[in-house]
Amino acid sequence: MKCIKCDSPNLAFNGRYRNGRQRYKCSDCKKQMSERTGSIFYRSRLPEFIIRIMVLLNLFNQTKIACLLLFLLFRCKVSEKSVNKWTRKLLYSLPDTYVPNYPEGTFLILHADEKFVKIKKEQAYQWNLIDCFGNLLSLIITMQRDSISAEKLFKMVHQKLRKLDLKAMILATDGLQSYIQAKRIFGRQCKHIRSGLKMEMFMHKKRLFCLNNNQAESINARSDYFIRRCQEP
């Protein structure tokens, strides 16, 4: 365990809180803390196992059903706002380490798309990039719709593909000019196709392809469903 303020390992016991939880004090910056400080369980009156169960139920069911199951199992009333807040904190604390397992010799096709979202009543943009198998490789939210944001998205995916010793062969996007400038991240061997809902036929490496960008458009509906459930009321 390290200090949440100065990241120092020099911690000492400093009594206990009223609920019996151990209190620690940093020898360098004199910061007081406990095991819950800085986590999703910080300043929560409920036990940790109940919060974990609620987050798990909320991910696979509606929030109303999760609150009803909590009341039937533990006779505990929790608002939907609290359950969504726990879910957001848990998902934001998870690192972006998901890398799908591709079979050897996979011809990888990527689909990129962006959509408009609102963050505290301000205009923002959500950038999604998925592969031809439906796996969401990266997702970022920026305040600008420019090539810098597109390059940031592509760099995150390019680093994941380098770990698997894979290269993107085809990149399908819409007509946004920022994708054309940011495509250089994947190199010259990656062919960039500008397509929307209509099919586009082209030749690449002596193969005939017929692609559209429907897969990237479908991922927006999945993200909209999660945003509606976990957004601030």
Explain what this protein looks like in three dimensions.
With 233 residues, the chain is α+β, with helices and mostly antiparallel strands. It has three domains: 1-38; 45-94; 108-230, 2-Layer Sandwich (Nucleotidyltransferase, domain 5). 34% of the residues lie in helices and 27% in strands. The chain is built from six helices and ten strands, in the order βββαααβββαβαβββα. A five-stranded mixed β-sheet has the order 6-5-4-7-8. α1 (48-60) packs antiparallel against α2 and α1 packs across α3. The longest helix is centred in the middle third of the chain and has 17 residues, at 147-163. The radius of gyration is 23 Å and the shape is elongated. 19% of the residues are buried. The mean pLDDT is 80.
Q: Order of helices and strands, N to C?
A: EEEHHHEEEHEHEEEH
Indicate the multimeric state: single chain
Helical segment count: 6
Kindly report the average pLDDT value. 80
Q: What can be said about the biggest beta sheet? A: 5 strands, mixed
**Any idea of the CATH topology of the largest domain?**
Nucleotidyltransferase, domain 5
* Secondary-structure arrangement, i.e. CATH architecture of the largest domain: 2-Layer Sandwich
- Helical percentage: 25-40%
Based on CA atoms alone, the radius of gyration comes out at 23 Å
Please indicate the percent range of residues in DSSP E strands (runs of 2 or more).
Answer: 25-35%
The geometry reads as: elongated
- Determine the structural class based on helices, strands and strand pairing: alpha+beta
